[in-house]
Structures are given as C-alpha cells and as structure tokens.
Amino acid sequence: DACCLSVTVVPVCIGSAEHTQSQKNEKVQCSNHDATHTLVLSHNGKLSEHWTTASADCSETRLVKGLGNRDIVQIACGDQHAVVLSRGGQLFTWGQNTHGQLGVGSQSTLIPQPQLVEGLQGISLAQIAAGGAHSAAVSLSGAVYSWGKNDFGQLGLRDTKDRDCPSYVGALEHWKTVFISCGADHTAVLSKEGLVCTFGAGGAGQLGHNSTRNELTPRVVAELWGARVSQVACGRQHTLVYVPSLDKVYLFGSDEEGQLGHERKPTQLIPLPINSPVNTGESCQENNTSQEVIETVAGGNQSIVLCKKNENSYLNGIATLKDEDVDTWISNFGLQHWESIKKSIRLIFSSEACINGSFLEKRDKHFKTSKDFSGVDISEVQRFYEKISKKPKVLQEVQKEIERLLPSLSSSPISPENFRVYLVLPFLLQGEDDSSYHSLGLLAEAIMKLQPKDLQTLECLWSNLETSFFKQLVILYQRVSQKNLSQFIVEVSSCHRNPLNLYPHETVTLQILQILYQVNSRTGCRVQENNFYVPQVKVIIRLCWVINTEEMALWKLTKYPCIFDMQDKIDVHYTERNVLSNAFSTINLLSMGHEQWLFPVRRQCLLQDIWTHLNDAPTQQFRRILMVSFVGETGLDEGGPSQELFSVAARTLCQPSTRAFRRLASGLAWFHSQASSCEHTFLRIGTLCGMALYNGCTAPFPFPRALYKKLLGLAPTLEDLEELLPAAGRNLKGILDEECDHILESLDLNFTIMEEGGSVVAVELKKNGANIPVTKGNRKEFVDLYVNYVFNESVQKPFQDFMQGFLRGCPARKWKMFLPAELQIVLQGHTKVDWHLLEKVLDTSTVYFCYMC
C-alpha cells in the first residue's frame, strides 16, 4: 500500500527491493508498489509528484496544481493514479482512469489534474488507499467504499464488474472498519476489534485463506482469529499484519523475491509469523521506549517494519468539531484571535463531510450507523448550540457558513452517513430571526431535492429521534411556516401581492411539516397534532371568502392538511362547496335561475322519493345546495328539514327489514360479505352520505372507523377489527401475543375464515389455506389476511358502489383533508357523549339563569 510517514522512523527492510524514506519531520511521501510514482507533501503544504519511467535515468517531478489552498492531510498512490484527502473532507484523484479508479464517473482514460470525487461528498473519511488500478476509503464510522478495477473481486462487491464511482461495500456494514490497504489486485481491511478481512485476487495466497481462490466478498482470515491485529499492509501480491500482544509480524502471499523473509515457500497460503525487529536491531534498540509501536509497510516486492518513537498515527484526519475548539472560540475574543476563529469555523461548517463527522455518538455507537440509526448525538448538538449562543458573534459566524453550505448539499447520498447533516443543521438554526428562518427554508429545499428512496431514509431517521428532539424539529418548521404565511397575508392585504400564488420557498417548509406529520402518525403520534397547526390559515380562509375563485392560494395550502385544525378543514370544505355552487349558478343562470336544488319528499314514501330524485338528477345537479320540503308541510329549509331527511333515511336503512347492512353485536353496521349491489342499493346510500357531507348535514349511520379510513384510502388495522368484531379482534391479538408453541398448535387454526350466511362456510384466506396451519412463523400473515378479508376482500363490490355514490353525492374534494376520526365526526356526528360534562354545563347554566332572574 502507499507508505505515508511524518515522524522519525528507523526502517528495517526484508527482501530485495530498495526502499527509502525521509528521516526528517518535514514531509510526507508515498509511493506505488513499484516506486515509479511518488507523492511528496512538504511542510508548507505543497504537493509534488514524481514519475520514474522505464529507464531509471529518466524521471520527472512536478508540482501538483488544481488543489488551490486546500490543506491536504492524506495521500495515496496507485500504479498510475493518485488519491488525496483534504482537511475539509474533500477527496481528489487524478492520473490513469482506464478502469474508473479515479471514481469521478468519467470515461476519459487519463485525467492529469485533480478532480473532486463527488460521489463521496459529505462522507466523513478517516482513511484512503490506492491499489494497482482500484481505490478505497473508510469513513469515521467504519463504512467502506471502493471503486475502479474489479476483475478479481478486489472491490468486495460480490461481482467482477468495474466501478467508475464509489460504491458502498455492504458486506462490511457494521464491521467497524478502521483501516484499509490495497494490493495490486487484492484488498485487506482491519476492524476495530483487530479482525482482518481480505478479498480480491488470491492466486499467490495473498488473502491468507489457505487457498489460491479469488474472493468476491470480504472474508475473515480465520488463522488470525482472536489475535487482535493492530496493523495491516498489502504489497503487490503479499500481505503483512502485526499482532502487538505477540510482538509478531505475520506474512502471507508471494515470496518470489524474498519479501517474506528467509526460509519461506514461494507461495505462503496462510499467515506465518516472523519475529519483529523491535528488540533485535541496534538501530532500534538505542531508541527503544515503552511507547514504541510497530508500523508495517508492504511495497511491491518488499516488506518494511518501521520502529516509531510515538503512538500518534501517521494518518491525519479531516477537521471535526472538538470541545477544546469550542472553548477556544468562546474564550479568545481579541481581534488577534478572531480571524483564526473564523478560519476554524469556516473549515468545519462549510464542509458537509466535516459536519457529518462531528457530534458522533460516543463509545463507538456511531459504528452502527444505518438507515435506522444516524450515529449522531443530538444532545451534543444541542449543547454546542447553547454554548455558542452565549457568544452571538460566534453563533452568527457558524450560521453564516451553514447558509453558504446549504445550496451545495449532496442530493445523491450513497450512505446513511450522508443524512447526518440534515439532522444536525436544524438544531443549529433554531433562532427566531429572519436569517435562521431563511436558512431553514434553504435546508427544506435541499431535503426536497432528495430522491424518494433517500427521503424515506431520512424519514426513518426522523422517526427514531428522541421525542423531545422530534418535537423541537416540528416546532422549528411550524415557526418558519407561520412567518412565511404571515408575510403572505401582509403583502396580499396591502395589495402588493397576487393573492392567488404562493412562492416555492413558502410551500417547501410546509412540505417538510407535512412529512414530519406523516412520520409522527406512523410512530404513534408522539407529538400532539396542534404542534403542526399554523393559525395563519384562518386568515387566509377569510381572504378567500372575499376573493371567491377556484384558483385561490388556499387550494395550494390544502396539500398540507396537517397545518389545518378541524374547524379550518370544515371551513375549507364549505368554501369549496360555495365556490362550486356559485360556479354552477353562474353557468346555468338562464336555464335554472337558482343555485338551490328543490327536493320535495313525502314522509310516508321517504326512501322511494329520495331514490327517484337521485335517479333523475344529472351529475351537475349535485353541486347545488339542497332545499328539502316535506309535502303538505309549510316552512323553508334553513337546515332543519335537510337534517331530518338524512337522519330518518339513515335510521330507516339500518332497520333489519331493509337488509342493507349487517347489524353486529358491537352495535355497528357493516356490509354483508360477498353481497352484490342489488338495484344499486349501495350506490344510492353512498350518494346519500356524500350529499349529507356536501350540504353540511350528518348522516348518522353507525359505521365503524374503518369505513372512513377506506374512504380516505387508508388501510384498516387489527384495532379497527376489534372495534367492529370485538371477540374476533381479541382472539387475533391473543394469537399474536401467544408465546407457547403447543398452545398455538392446540387451537388447530388454518388459513380459513368461517362466514355466516344461510349456512356456515369456510373461506380460504390464501390458496390451499385449509391445509396451511397457523404457526408462530406465519401468524402475522394470518392476522393480516383475516383483517384484509373482513374489510376489503369480502365487501369489495358493495364498498366500491358506495364509494362511487359518495363521490357523486359530494362533488367537493377537500374533505379528503380530514383525518378518519374527523370525517366520522363531521359526517356521522359525535357518537359518544360525556354525560358528566353535560351535567356540569347544565348545572352552571341553571345557576346563571337563576342569578339573571
């Protein structure tokens, strides 16, 4: 692997090849396996490149341009390409690109100037490596990425396809990788626990698996199990590892030129030790201290064991936030220190990678980073914010750098580690000033640029936030949404704004708020719904009453129903109804003359007259406001006659004699299983319910909550089944909770359900269900199929007709903003009465009445 040194070392060489290193702490240099390509990083940050051609007398050294003033912290050489890492977390490559080893997605076979590897933007890299024609990198949290040549499987991606962009090595997920080394065509990784995995070309035994087979997937070197390796290095076709507890260097692979020491086989298939030279050579002994450690370097056909005099790794890392840095920022406020402080702040907070590498969970928990676990300690973020808030100048500088960074956030993350920045930044922008609101808006825009699958990952990470932090996140976006809509109202009221339009920056934070609401709903409503309400919508609704047009801004806001409370939703529904009825009146003014629908009925033939009106009515008729009159009775419909019509019709249709619905022991009404819609019964009932909603009346059918879920396109659950069929629901819950296999077996259940009609019939829930017993392994599937059958499969035709009629009877569509519980209340009325509360209210009213008398 590339050899990088920045401390005084004493080399001890094994093998025939010549290898030299600087003895001064002035520069860092690395070479490829054949020493034909060398990078040299000087103490003043200048990076030079040295090439040696086939003729030893012909060489070329040049200063590497194109890196600007970036502080380079790591360098690595492949056979014909170079990889460097900046302190700001950016990775650059250049050189030959015949196999995509530069990772820039380009088809060019040669790129002479450094190019940014955009695929790793935002990843907090800990270490980089370069092989013959492939490259690799390890993140601070142990994620491994590889790209380039892969004909032997050296990328660890389970195939032999080359990659021209960095790919995440999923086989090493959660392996806590801390170091990686690349040979000509093989790769070795070291875990924090001291385990070694190798993969790629194995023809010379360089993988250490006691075979010459190639490995497409990372495989643990079994011979080193339990040895706790501290270092690993790959040569062209051999590998070295160091075990400090045994003070041994283990070597395996090709020994054609003696690089594995004396008395070795030409091909060593398993790791065998040689004594380390720490205590054997005079040059090492004279500087030997208790702090000495061993460092191994494998060249092309050589091996070097380096005796170092301090414990600090030669690998310098990217900039991440440290407690001591923050203390310095806060304490040193003289003019002479401020420029240095600003430079430090800029270095970290202008870099997505540096932010992602800060605030990590302690005790190695961040090594478990996945789409379910961010690896970020949000409480540390909060503490940092509180600390710098005491120094507004520092806080403003941090937020200024964040604002500059936001437009460039990666929109194509390749790792869960990329998402940390989306969790950290809101808590650093929680001020209640215009600048913070603007930055939160920019962050929202960056989030909404993510692909759907990536947005799902972020939602999953949000769902796993502690409730207090999740609530804080909701409140942040609620505040900025309030501010945006308040500004909209001011501009519209002062006639400085088209009242029909909302700008993208005003709706993007509402999108985030709606997504957070959906996450909250999926995780058990940890945050109360009123935290999502935006009071400004009430004012906008009133503005729309004045404007009275179908193109009003209000309709755009209805895409985000979480910001409306229940009364707001009712007002929106009636606003839409009034717009529709007025539009109908305008279109039909000459022919119809009125926007009302006169609806005379006879009490003794109520249902018959209702069905007659519905059968004869054209679709557009349902837009008009209903005006009910009972034949033979005087008076105008101010709401009473209409409500009476729907109440009487619902009560009549629920009578057993009509056979329209099943009346269950729970007191609820449901469709008959496998029922056909005889004479359009359910189409008519659905139309009647839709008309009730449109006209502001209740239709008190005793339907379960599941019906309103289905109307809104939501799937009923086991809890809904327990409401409709309490006994069956409790039994199914018992099946899910049962831990004893023999009790479950004794129930003798299979994938069928017993239907009661004219006779009891067993219906299979899946193909061949009668022969599939319910076990612990499949009981969840059984319960899901049971619920699905009751609410969907068995009532598909009648509900389909009911839904069709409902949409016909209610031409307005904003009712879909309602939650199932809200829609049930609006359409069915309150089904539960708090008699104790009513008693208190009546007592108070009586006392007040007596006092007034």
From TrEMBL:
<dbReference type="GO" id="GO:0005737">
    <property type="term" value="C:cytoplasm"/>
</dbReference>
<dbReference type="GO" id="GO:0061630">
    <property type="term" value="F:ubiquitin protein ligase activity"/>
</dbReference>
<feature type="repeat" description="RCC1">
    <location>
        <begin position="194"/>
        <end position="245"/>
    </location>
</feature>
<keyword id="KW-0677">Repeat</keyword>
<dbReference type="InterPro" id="IPR009091">
    <property type="entry name" value="RCC1/BLIP-II"/>
</dbReference>
<protein>
    <recommendedName>
        <fullName>HECT domain-containing protein</fullName>
    </recommendedName>
</protein>
<dbReference type="InterPro" id="IPR058923">
    <property type="entry name" value="RCC1-like_dom"/>
</dbReference>
<feature type="repeat" description="RCC1">
    <location>
        <begin position="142"/>
        <end position="193"/>
    </location>
</feature>
<dbReference type="Pfam" id="PF25390">
    <property type="entry name" value="WD40_RLD"/>
</dbReference>
<dbReference type="Pfam" id="PF00632">
    <property type="entry name" value="HECT"/>
</dbReference>
<keyword id="KW-0808">Transferase</keyword>
<feature type="domain" description="HECT">
    <location>
        <begin position="618"/>
        <end position="840"/>
    </location>
</feature>
<feature type="repeat" description="RCC1">
    <location>
        <begin position="247"/>
        <end position="309"/>
    </location>
</feature>
<keyword id="KW-0833">Ubl conjugation pathway</keyword>
<dbReference type="GO" id="GO:0006511">
    <property type="term" value="P:ubiquitin-dependent protein catabolic process"/>
</dbReference>
<dbReference type="InterPro" id="IPR000569">
    <property type="entry name" value="HECT_dom"/>
</dbReference>
<dbReference type="InterPro" id="IPR000408">
    <property type="entry name" value="Reg_chr_condens"/>
</dbReference>
<dbReference type="GO" id="GO:0016567">
    <property type="term" value="P:protein ubiquitination"/>
</dbReference>
<feature type="repeat" description="RCC1">
    <location>
        <begin position="89"/>
        <end position="141"/>
    </location>
</feature>
<dbReference type="InterPro" id="IPR051709">
    <property type="entry name" value="Ub-ligase/GTPase-reg"/>
</dbReference>
<dbReference type="InterPro" id="IPR035983">
    <property type="entry name" value="Hect_E3_ubiquitin_ligase"/>
</dbReference>
